[in-house]
Predict the 3D structure of the following.
Amino acid sequence: MKKVFSYNANIEKNAYMNWRTNKYEEIHNMNVVAEGFIEGASILIQECLEDNCDTKADILIFPILFSINHSIEVYAKSICWSLNVLLGNNSKFNKNHDIRGIWLTAKQKIKDFGFGVGREEDDFKNMIITTDKYIDEIFNVIKNEDINNAYHNIDFSRYPINNRWENHFYIKSFDNVTVDLENLYMIVEDIKQCLNRLSGYYCQLVSQKEEISD
């Protein structure tokens, strides 16, 4: 077998893992990875919408949802990291997978940093409406009337069972658990635009701050 990390003479058939990253720009690298996951989810959804006669969506929905959730997690951690630098805090981000908690922390840090001309608070609130609704829906589904369940069920798209060896909600259900792919695509595109703008903006401010300090 040819090695996975190898070169193809046709450059269009290569994936260059370090063309968009930079060892001196750690927060930027977080954004690159986050963008990759949500872009991957978007492409998979489009493929299913174009042709699902083989019902591939029934299995691709798992990597799709995982990629969306992981992208949100990495974007939110990137935002926290940027704002900790800008606010002078000696920390980066919480090392867990509590998407809702990380996102709430990111929003609070955005408020602590403040708003201004061209970045009004009302504009921020409108920008994050879809992201908020998506995260809240996921959280409410996995906690299932007990907030402690959210911790155990956060990997619902990675495994059919949680870390207590219990079936996830879609396995337990007697009724069909369905995802409207057209609706999900619109949600993903909105989240992608929202988090890409926010993470990119604060990352740029960090870069500017570092240039001044140099």
The chain has one domain: 26-213. The chain has a mean pLDDT of 92. The CA atoms of residues 158 and 189 lie 22 Å apart. The first helix runs from residue 26 to 50.
